[in-house]
Amino acid sequence: MKVVRRNLFSSKTAFLGSLNNAAFIPQPSSIIPPARNLHSVTDDPTLLRILEGCKLPPNFRTANSVHGKFIKHGYGIFVKVGEFDVAKKIFLASSTRDVVTWNSTIGGCVKDGYFLEAIGLFKDMVKASIEPDKFTFASAIAACSRLGALNHGQWVHELMIEKKVQLNYILSSALIDMYSRCGRIEIAKSIFDTTLRNDVSIWNAMIKGLAMHGLVSDAVSAFSNMQIEKISPDPLTFISILTTCSHCGFVDQGRYYFDIMQKNFSIQPQLEHYGAMVDLFGRAGLLEEAYALIQEMPMEPDVVTWRALLSACKTYKNHELGEIAVGEIKNLESGDYILLSNMYCSVNKWDDAETVRHVMNKKGVRKCRGRSWVELHGSIHYFKAGDRSHPETEAIYRVLEALIHRARMEGYVCARDSVFMDISEEEKEENLNYHSEKLTLAYGILKSSPGTKILISKNLRTCTDCHSWMKIVSKVLNRIITVRDRMRFHSFEKGSCTCGDYW
Question: Number of structural domains, the chain?
Answer without folding.
Answer: 2
